[in-house]
């Protein structure tokens, strides 16, 4: 706990110092990689002004977030402008603590499960098994990566609303194995209310309820009913505040129809600026399927590994959502150490890591060449953002395939011949 306290203290001090650099925070908040039409703080401020004049934060074309989040931040800003950055810092701290606790619970469960089924494991696999030092070191590493990830830091100091969505998802995963369906589904409902796409994570809560709870408390339908209950409560509160159903669901319409093609690091904006209008509806369905459909086959394949399913669904959502930003990737990147005992099975990890780092640097460079220097065009920026998206796909597929291969090897043996034996094959050279 001492290490965690030091990490949190350093993270808070770093953010407090960076928030004093007004020119830096102003520049970062305008970056298309950090702020999107749905998450931008400047658009939220415009929404405040419109709300004062019309009584409806969605009456203009500035703010496209949820009603309750805008109301919360509006009252916070009215109390004291200093409270707003403090709340964003608190979001990161609480999310880091939640991820730390989640990692500790998950690895403890995995270690207990491994020890209880040790007789069923294959011989000669001791070197690749989950060890006690993973339980001791990985949770702290998860919190460290989350708090000091540059993506998390720029999201915080730009005051992007993604910080709240990450907080809700971090609290959701922290409660996944606690047995509290009410708390788990509350935070999932809050995240779904904000950005819609996390609705598919309800299947993870149902699978965890079935796998990790005691025999008499394995009703997988319970999380589903709790989730629907919380969503209805949120919609009801929004309706009581706004008095209009159209206003409540306007941000969902914005997410699904993608009317704003402001450039970002996603794949929607460029495509829908180029295609003819009469093809738009068809391709909207095609693109949205990428973010929403994969949970069906993945849930079938990974039904015995709900945490792995949660990881890959979080990756898919952050990669294929209509208005992504770098802050969306912070949650699943911080969870990568959970699978550190399977990293030896990954393919070309160095190339994929360098690809992510390179494209992260290339995106601002290409933006400068396109918008500021006028020496490039939209193709340059889209190429960099497409490579950035591709690096995410490689990381998520590598991680999941490595975990599944590791799980197979501890049961069937490290080396298998064609006949299923674990004996080594010897190549003999014949004269």
TrEMBL record:
UniProt membrane topology term: Multi-pass membrane protein
Any one of the GO BP annotations: attachment of GPI anchor to protein
Ranges annotated as spanning the membrane: 78-99, 224-240, 279-300, 350-373, 379-404
Keyword check for Transmembrane helix: yes
InterPro entries: PIG-U (IPR009600)
GO CC field: GPI-anchor transamidase complex
Pathway of action: Glycolipid biosynthesis; glycosylphosphatidylinositol-anchor biosynthesis
Pfam families attached to this UniProt entry: PIG-U
Domain of life: Eukaryota
Signal peptide range: 1-18
UniProt KW keywords: Endoplasmic reticulum, GPI-anchor biosynthesis, Membrane, Signal, Transmembrane, Transmembrane helix
Localization (cell): Endoplasmic reticulum membrane
Family: Belongs to the PIGU family.
Protein name per UniProt: Phosphatidylinositol glycan anchor biosynthesis class U protein
Gene name of the record: LOC100179414
